[in-house]
Amino acid sequence: MKLSDLSASTGVAPATLKYYLREGLLPAGARVSATRADYDASHVERVRLIRALVEGAGLSIAGVRRVVDAIEHPPESFQDFLGAAQSAISVGALTSPVSPEVRYAVAELGWGDCHSDALGLLQAALDTADRASFPVTTERLVAYGRAMEQVAEIDIGALAADTAGASRSEMLRYVAVGTVVVDPVLVALRRLAQAHVSAARLGLPPPPP
Amino acid sequence: MKLSDLSASTGVAPATLKYYLREGLLPAGARVSATRADYDASHVERVRLIRALVEGAGLSIAGVRRVVDAIEHPPESFQDFLGAAQSAISVGALTSPVSPEVRYAVAELGWGDCHSDALGLLQAALDTADRASFPVTTERLVAYGRAMEQVAEIDIGALAADTAGASRSEMLRYVAVGTVVVDPVLVALRRLAQAHVSAARLGLPPPPP
Fold first, then answer.
1. From the list A52, A131, A195, which residue is nearest B51 (CB)?
2. CB–CB of B75/B43 below 8 Å?
3. Which of A4, A59, B132, B180 has the smallest set of CB atoms within 10 Å of its CB?
4. What residues in B contact A109, CB-CB < 8 Å?
5. What b/e readout covers B97-117, taking b as 16+ CB neighbours within 10 angstroms?
6. Do β-strands A36-38 and A30-33 pair in parallel, antiparallel, or remain unpaired?
7. Which residues, in sequence order, are CB contacts of B72 under 8 Å at separation 6+?
8. Which is it for strands B30-33 and B36-38: parallel, antiparallel or unpaired?
9. Among residues B129, B43, B41, which one has the least CA distance to residue A188?
10. What is the pLDDT of residues A21-57, one digit of tens each?
């Protein structure tokens, strides 16, 4: 298909597609003539991925490039691979030296096998909470951890079911996109659940329909 | 204390504090002379709140102003109050008309008492996932909802315990800051839990220490 058809299929303006091509996020189409290139379904898929990362996660172009690089050069072991998908989408996050309290919480949760990038991300989030005069106790951190382990069970169960027989690149795309686009879903569900739990606990009447 | 002392207490540069004063995020100090104003502990607290919202949640100055306004003019009912705290921090989020699938999931969860702002936020997150070719099934949404209800139980339990006897403004600060600074903690815990669950389920050895 022509660039104009790729634009029509994805709803992304031709000027934006040309920008993705120049930045190397979108592979060049097959050259048909001096002024025309041919695009296929893989280009449609790639444009959707880029839009998901930009819109869903607010990633910068540099962040999108890291995800695209990880997808094009997937690491060998699954653990490295999950780490690569996660690191690619945590662009710009500051990481901090891990405190004894966090190590204790992780041990308490039985998560002996944590890779250090995500631990640094957790520590940075806790340090920000401290600076905001909103310290998260170790007990509370462990309780949150148990709830998020259920979320991860859903994530990994769906990954195993949905990518059976798929290539490593496809699995990496699934992990990167699934992690990025589901984060805001969880954040919204937390707010809805807060409203429900506070009404139930504090005995408040539901608001008018 | 002088502006320079407020700067020393909070670690925020005097020029930045002056910017917060000009923008009305930080109330003026008590005028002592033509060139000097006096700041107190409430100013230290406010600066910490502003930094938490900017650093922890990446809120814009307009977003911070909405939180500050909500804290200064807290609504009467607790439900309105929770909604105000939540809306103030979801600045910039697009909301969408709510689909029958989302209404079904919310009913399935027993959350009949959801206010519509957070529902629109959830719908927008699901629409983004759809556009990224990563549709979240209703079954998966309900499963995520149950996990986030546990998170909300921890949130609301801590709110009740930590703000007993506090003013409405203090409770609103607690909800707004707690929601904003805990979101990145949950996101980091999800990544750690994914690594643990994938290693446990897929029988992979833990990475070297």
1. A131
2. no
3. A4
4. 196
5. ebeeebeebbeebebebbbeb
6. antiparallel
7. B169
8. antiparallel
9. B129
10. 998 899 999 998 888 899 998 899 889 888 877 776 6
Residue A73, token pair as written in the block: 């050069």
Closest CA to B171 of B63, B77, B57: B77
Token pair recorded at residue A7:
């634009």
Burial class for A56, CB neighbours closer than 10 Å (0-12, 13-18, 19+): buried
**Rounded alpha-carbon distances, angstroms, from residue A31 to A24, A39, B193:** 16, 9, 45
- Please give the average per-residue pLDDT across B7-19, as a whole number: 92
Amino acid at A96: S
Three-class secondary structure of residue B171 per DSSP: helix
**A177 with B132: Cβ contact below 8 A:** yes
Give me Rg for the CA atoms of chain B. 21
Interface test with B, best of A187, A201, A202 (most B CBs within 10 A): A187
CB contact under 8 A, B56 and A113: no
Summarised one tens digit per residue, pLDDT across range A47-90 is 988 887 777 666 778 778 877 877 777 666 666 666 666 666 65
CA-based nearest distance A44→chain B, Å: 11
Q: What is the pLDDT at residue B203?
A: 56
Contact A31, A37 (CB under 8 A): yes
A105: closest chain B residue by CA = B189
Question: Is B115 close to A51, i.e. CB distance below 8 A?
Answer: no
Convert the pLDDT of each residue in B121-133 to its tens digit: 888 888 878 877 7
Residues from chain A that touch B160, judged by Cβ atoms under 8 A, are 201-202
| Residue bearing the bigger pLDDT, B199 or B19 | B19
